[in-house]
Amino acid sequence: MLIKIKKQSDICESDITSESIYLKRREILKGLGLATAGLAFPGASQAGILDYFSKKTAPIKDRRQSLSGRVNASYNSDWELTPESKVISHNNFYEFGMGKGDPINKAQNFKTEPWHIVIDGEVNKPYKLSMEELLKLFTPEERIYRLRCVEAWSMNIPWIGVRLADLIKRAQPNSNAKYVAFETLYDPQQMPGQDSRRIGGGIDYPYVEGLRIDEAMNDLTMLSVGLYGKTLAPQNGAPIRLVVPWKYGFKSIKSIVSIKLTRQQPPNTWNITNAREYGFYANVNPDVDHPRWSQGSERFIGEGGLLSVRREKTKIFNGYAEEVASLYRGMDLNKFI
Ligand code: MTE
User: Fold this and answer.
1) Where are the beta strands (DSSP E) in 164-255?
2) Which end of the chain is more exposed for a tag (fewer CB within 10 A), N or C?
3) CA of 114 to the centre of ligand 1 (A)
4) Which of the listed residues 252, 258, 272, 290 should we mutate to test ligand 1's pocket, taking the one with most ligand atoms within 8 A of CB?
């Protein structure tokens, strides 16, 4: 039997669990005829299903408020929506732990008020906004987008947000602005994973991400402030996170405090952590497998019970090729992963 020794920071292939919990899960899965000789589910997608078995049942405070966005019907999807209960309970937010159920349990007291976001760097008019100011200046829209995680699971979510392009234009980028760098809040007191390898997986925090300027200005690219008619829950990246639906979910950085326009390509967390497995571009691509699993299909988290598994074929650019394929014309997508 092949045993892979993984680094603590390997992205989520299977959530790190104690051996006894893992073995118990395997027994249950075996009973259901789901376990195979190697991984219970080939690839990364078992993480979500298995996590349901260990979910703590501490009562969850829901601090979200109603928030509406003008429905933009051009952005829809023929898939059913992922139930809200799953969108807010199956999360990746390593600052609060590596398990899918950790963010909902451990981010409950995360303080998101007051919150400011700064836009600066290669711009003529840098500025800083509170969330209240941001929502007065930019009218939120509701758009239904698919979210495809590099771990080969996906969701379909009614996001509420504003176009990143509008925020960038307000700062008047200068001609040196070639990239956009994003940074999550750094506050280890509130985000215990930021100074604990055991909780945060040994990532170098704060979590950072980046886009090319043309990607950032694309109409699809959103800064989300809510979903399902409410403000974001802490576990989803409150109060403001990026959504780039044609890229793997790790590009969608959460709880952003800084947006900086830069000359050089900025670093991004998963690429710093493991450059062999995660690139800068991270465009969803069924033809370029992750070194440890196939990206040809995905487990769609939709309606249904704990063990409902619906496999869908992964689409190039997550189904958004019409809107974004031209951004990558002439680039070798096997190389620029
Ligand atoms: N942002 C921060 N700051 N920390 C994280 O661990 N995880 C990323 C991304 N943004 C992450 C993050 C990953 S791997 C994914 S798939 C998405 O958030 C998940 O978003 P969701 O939990 O709202 O589904």
Assistant:
1) 179-184, 208-212, 222-227, 230-231, 241-243
2) N
3) 22
4) 252
Grouping H, G, I as helix, E, B as strand and the rest as coil, residue 259 is strand
Amino acid in the structure at residue 97: G
Residue 72: CB atoms within 10 Å: 13
pLDDT at 58: 62
Show the ligand 1 pocket: residues with CB < 6 angstroms. Answer: 91-95, 147, 149, 184, 207, 236-237, 249-250, 252-255
Sign of CA dihedral 281, 285, 251, 71: positive
Q: How many residues in total does the chain contain?
A: 337
Residue 73 CA to residue 156 CA, distance in Å, equals 15
**C-alpha dist (Å) from residue 32 to 17, 25, 49, 50:** 20, 11, 13, 13
Give the per-residue pLDDT at 203: 96
- Picking from 103, 106, 140, the residue whose alpha carbon sits closest to that of residue 223 is 140
Nearest atom in ligand 1 to 207's CA: 3
Share of the chain above pLDDT 90, in %: 79
Q: Which residue has the tokens 């992750």?
A: 290
Q: Whose CA is nearest to atom 24 of ligand 1?
A: 91
Could you name the CATH architecture of 19-328? Answer: Alpha-Beta Complex (3.90)
pLDDT for 305 equals: 81
Confidence bin at 11 (pLDDT 50/70/90): low
Per-residue pLDDT at 67 exceeds 60: yes
- Mean pLDDT confidence for 244-272: 98
Burial (CB count <10 Å: 0-12, 13-18, 19+), residue 90? buried
Tens of pLDDT, residue by residue over 69-97, are: 999 999 998 899 999 999 999 999 999 99
User: How far is it, in rounded angstroms, from Cα 155 to Cα 146?
Assistant: 6
